[in-house]
Amino acid sequence: MKVLKLENATAGYGNVIAIRDVSLEVPEGAIVTLLGSNGAGKSTTLKLISGIVKARAGTVSFGGENLAGMTPDRIVKLGIVHCPENRQVFPHFTVYENLMIGSYTRRDRRKVKEDLERVYDIFPRLRERSSQYAGTLSGGEQQMLAIGRALMAAPRLLLLDEPSLGLAPIIIREIFNIIKKINESGTSILLVEQNANLALKIADFAYVLEHGRIAISGQSDRLRNDGRIKELYLGSHS
Ligand code: ATP
């Protein structure tokens, strides 16, 4: 079992402590969501896991292996792949080129080709637009490309940062259905979201960050009926 574990992790930038004493787990095969308002420390938690930000205290491990001191590309090779906030596709490269960039750490070209076909099967729109510049795609298509590019790195654990950001409800539903499918095909998912209602529908387990600390955690079904969550994050959608 390749479980991702954060144990009492603290991280930040300069004088800012963005997350403090955070402990969480993503069991193999699960969808776990990390909720919280703006600035709560969600993105920092993902950056810590993918090695962009270093832990000041505590540990991050994957399958029992401590990730301390590992470079981001080494962490990608272990199977942890980060799909960042605001998609960050390369606008002046084509859809195909963006996808191939996702496979840069891999040697087995035959497997890469198979995965490209798989990504095109999951996102037929990317196949249709394979030679189009990424910067000319719609917001929803760019999000699909960002997820497709992450899949090209053959993740065992996918870190998704706010995939619903700025998208129309119908596209968000499509993307969430695809996230569920990716998980069913064997990839664990840590999903950062502000859209708590949707995230709790697809996740098995949830953590809520408040001011850099885990304030609430539990099975998603239970949290959907939790008074505090309803009041703070579900609003009228509940
Ligand atoms: P959002 O939902 O708005 O993306 P978040 O929960 O992902 O928020 P983070 O981006 O992790 O929150 O930010 C946590 C804290 O760290 C905030 O106070 C933020 O201002 C600070 N922070 C984030 N990135 C940096 C940085 N590069 N330099 C300095 N401070 C930063």
Report on the structure:
With 238 residues, this protein is of the alpha/beta class. Helix content is 38%, strand content 26%. It is built from ten helices and ten strands. It has helices at 42-49, 72-78, 95-101, 109-122, 124-128, 139-151, 169-184, 196-202, 220-224, 227-234, and strands at 4-13, 16-26, 31-35, 57-62, 65-66, 80-83, 157-161, 188-193, 205-210, 213-219. A six-stranded mixed beta sheet has the order 6-7-8-3-9-10, sandwiched between helices. A four-stranded antiparallel beta sheet has the order 2-1-4-5, covered by helices on one side. Helix 3 (95-101) packs parallel to helix 6. The longest helix is centred in the C-terminal third of the chain and has 16 residues, at 169-184. 42% of the residues are buried. Bound molecules: adenosine-5'-triphosphate. Adenosine-5'-triphosphate (ATP) is lined by residues 13, 16, 18, 36, 38-44, 85, 194.
Name a few traits of the molecule.
four-stranded antiparallel sheet; 10 helices; 38% helix; globular; binds adenosine-5'-triphosphate
